[in-house]
Design brief:
Helix content: 25-40%
Distance between the termini: 28 Å
Largest sheet: 2 strands, antiparallel
Order of helices and strands: EEHHH
Structural class: mainly alpha
Number of strands: 2
Strand order of the largest sheet: 1-2
Number of helices: 3
Radius of gyration: 15 Å
Number of domains: 1
Shape: globular
Length: 88
Amino acid sequence: MKQTTLDPMDPHPDFAGRTITQEVKVGDFRLTMLTTADLDDDMAAIEESAAALDNIFGNGWPRGLTREKDRVDLDRHHREFTAHHAFA
């Protein structure tokens, strides 16, 4: 089977042309796309969960993560979401 590589800003084939909900409420939780406006909360959550994240990813992440690197990641996640490429 031929595998194709998607451009990071091309819509994922499963979501191209679909309307994607911008916010979902699940019980007491409100799920929204990540943006750079979430930087302070994201950094706090990452720092609180650093040991668990390292256990999940096993590569030392998030050790060495700076606010600037996290801001760049959040910006990429936002662009991927609005392009219907990936959802974080």
